[in-house]
Each structure stands twice: as C-alpha cells, then as structure tokens.
C-alpha cells in the first residue's frame, strides 16, 4: 500500500490481481446482481488508488480495511430493495460422481437458501456474507461493519434463527 500511495502502478496492479476476485465475490454476496457487484468492484479499486494514503498499517489488517471499503460501496450503491447475496461463489462439496437427481436437489436447496437469505434485512445479510466462507473472524467482520462484536453476533443469531425457521425442513 505504501508503494500504491506513491503512485506505483505496478504495485496497484498486484493488489488488484491479488484481491479483485474476493472483492467481487463479497460485493456479489451483498448485492447479488453481477453488474452491481462489478460496478462496486471498480469503485473500490478506484478508491484504493486515489485514497491509498489513508491506509494505516498498524490500525487494521489490509483485508479488513479493504472489505470495509467494499461494504461501504455496496451499501451506498443500493438502488431500491437489494436482492440477497448469492451463494454461487461458494464451492460445492466434493462428492463421488453424483447423479443428476443429486445435482438437481443441490440446485434446489441452493435456490431455497438464496431465496431465504434474500428476505433478511441488509445488515443481517451483510453479517452472513462477511462471516460465511471467509477467513474473517467475528472481530474483523464487526470492524468492517463498524459495529461491536456483540452487535455482529446478535445480527448473526437473528439471521440464523430466521433462516432456520424458513428452511427448517432442510435439516
């Protein structure tokens, strides 16, 4: 980041190459629409380039700082009710040659989960997006959302309770 702050385009390209997929995946999980997520990704890296000097290494990990920018840009980009985060970027578990019935059942389950996530309030959806399938701790996710760890955990409890109620028959 120090090199990016001095205008080093090669350092910036390395950061983009290293983090673009994760930025896009997080934006897509919060916004769902691919086009919106791509717009946010472009905005995030524009901000990273123009505001690189605002990063303070001792205050937060780079990814925590970056994901906070992603969350802010995602929340600011909402135009009307936002659809839920997509779970498509989560890898499917490895199985031994599943048949077509198994694949159809998995697709149906994924669609039901995505539909249930869509009904969650944005703050709960963001909490789920940051903590599910990410290497982020609750503390890091709370910092990104600018809430206390307790508040994040409360959001997660409410989100999971709601999802359990809606998806109870999937157990």
From TrEMBL:
Domain RNA polymerase sigma factor 70 region 4 type: 111-163
Keyword Transcription regulation set for record: yes
Signal sequence region: none
Region (Disordered): 76-110
All residue ranges annotated as the RNA polymerase sigma-70 region domain in the record: 15-79
Keyword annotations of the record: DNA-binding, Sigma factor, Transcription, Transcription regulation
Recorded family membership: Belongs to the sigma-70 factor family. ECF subfamily.
Name of the protein described by the UniProt record: Sigma-70 family RNA polymerase sigma factor
Native source organism of the sequence: Spectribacter hydrogenoxidans
């Amino acid at each position: 980041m120090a090199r990016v702050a001095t205008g080093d385009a090669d350092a910036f390209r390395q950061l983009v190459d290293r983090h673009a997929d994760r930025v896009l995946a997080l934006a897509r999980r919060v916004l769902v629409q691919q086009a919106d997520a791509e717009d946010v990704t472009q905005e995030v890296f524009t901000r990273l380039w123009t505001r690189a000097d605002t990063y303070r290494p001792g205050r937060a990990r780079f990814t925590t700082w970056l994901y906070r920018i992603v969350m802010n840009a995602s929340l600011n980009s909402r135009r009307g009710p936002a659809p839920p985060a997509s779970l498509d970027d989560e890898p499917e578990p490895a199985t031994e040659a599943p048949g077509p019935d198994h694949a159809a059942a998995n697709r149906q389950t994924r669609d039901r989960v995505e539909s249930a996530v869509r009904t969650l309030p944005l703050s709960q959806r963001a909490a789920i997006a940051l903590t599910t399938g990410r290497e982020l701790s609750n503390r890091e996710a709370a910092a990104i959302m600018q809430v206390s760890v307790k508040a994040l955990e409360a959001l997660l409890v409410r989100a999971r309770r709601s999802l359990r109620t809606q998806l109870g028959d999937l157990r």
